[in-house]
Amino acid sequence: MTRAIIAQTTGGPDVLQIGEAAELAAGPGELLVETAAVGVNFIETYQRSGIYAVPFPFTPGEEAAGRVLAVGTEVAGFTVGDLVTTTEAQATYAERFVVEAARAVPVPAGIDAETAAAIPLQGLTAHYLATSAAHPQPGDTVLVHAGAGGVGLLLTQLLTARGVRVITTASTPEKQELSRGAGAAEVLPYAGFADAVRDLTDGVGAAVVYDGVGKDTFDDSLRALRVRGELVLFGAASGPVPPFDLQRLNSGGSLSVTRPSLGHFLQSPEERAWRYGELFAAIAAGQLHLRIGARFPLAEAAAAHRALEGRATTGKVILLP
Questions:
Q1: How far apart are CA 321 and CA 308, in angstroms?
Q2: Is 86 exposed, middle or buried (0-12, 13-18, 19+ CB in 10 A)?
Q3: Which positions ≥6 away from 311 have C-beta within 8 Å?
Q4: CA gap 31, 79 in Å, rounded
Q5: Residue 219 has pLDDT above 80, yes or no
């Protein structure tokens, strides 16, 4: 048997209990991986609480890194002992997990397991936001909400490296300082951010607003945009955005709104390799710095969820078996 976090029903963090799960094996096209570190993400709090429907009993987790224990048939490019990472597995809150080989990537030498587990979801999200979901150009000004969050810190670094001026929002002085350290040109409190962005752009507005907060910021995010600006709504930390009148996009200046998700930006092995490759290269070159804000033992997954939901962390939260 192997230890895993198992929730028997929906509920608060305390439904996440350590228990014994059946032993796993690598089937055709799969890898069996011994978990070294697990990335904790907001989607798992939604699944645990019942906002997103999942079957129970349920072991959360899509993101993790570890050493390959067994390679299934029909798999090429992996050997036992390889350090791999993924954000496209299932039930990774466990000492072992199985993943399709096509959805895992080898970790280059020089990148440790904790970093490898912490980078996929937030790093790939930041990468597609910076390169594909919207199209800011060098010299443009953009607004990134939650600039001290895991995605916000990485997205700020990727955008500034491309010559984009980044304004962020952050809720506390400590978080504001972290955001500045990632390269933000200006860091704003949430109150009055739309007017502040216009002041900082001589009344023009931002070319792009990256909004992972949702309901509480959406209206003012639209108001902060320039003519033909793009609003990228990629999360709902404060709740889902209610339906709205599309005519507002016209009156706001021929605005665009998109609601992307990561899976649609990992559509081929080539695209997956490109995104991971650029992230690994930037980390290795010292151009992209990943902040691990909190580490918890696997058995304390409930505490990790409480910290995440209570906005008590910055950067990435990981579990260590």
A1: 19
A2: buried
A3: 171
A4: 9
A5: yes
CATH of domain 2-119+290-320: 3.90.180.10
Three-state DSSP string of 215-240: CCCHHHHHHCEEEEEEEEECCCCCCC
> Tokens standing for 296?
């918890």
Residue 161 neighbours by CB under 8 Å, 6+ apart? 282, 287, 288
pTM above 0.85, yes or no: yes
For residue 174, which amino acid is it?
Answer: E
User: Across residues 289-312, what is the average pLDDT?
Assistant: 93
CB 226 within 8 A of CB 205: yes
- pLDDT exceeds 80 at position 235: yes
Q: Which residues of 237-271 are buried (b: 16+ CB within 10 A; e: fewer)?
A: bbeebeeeeeeebeebeebebeebebeebbeeeee
pLDDT score of 120: 97
State the Cα angle at 263 between 65 and 26, rounded to 5°.
Answer: 45
Task: Kindly tell me if the per-residue pLDDT of 311 is higher than 80.
Answer: no
The CATH-assigned architecture of domain 122-263 is 3-Layer(aba) Sandwich (3.40)
Note the pLDDT tens digit of each residue in 96-143: 999 999 999 999 999 999 999 999 999 999 999 999 999 999 999 999
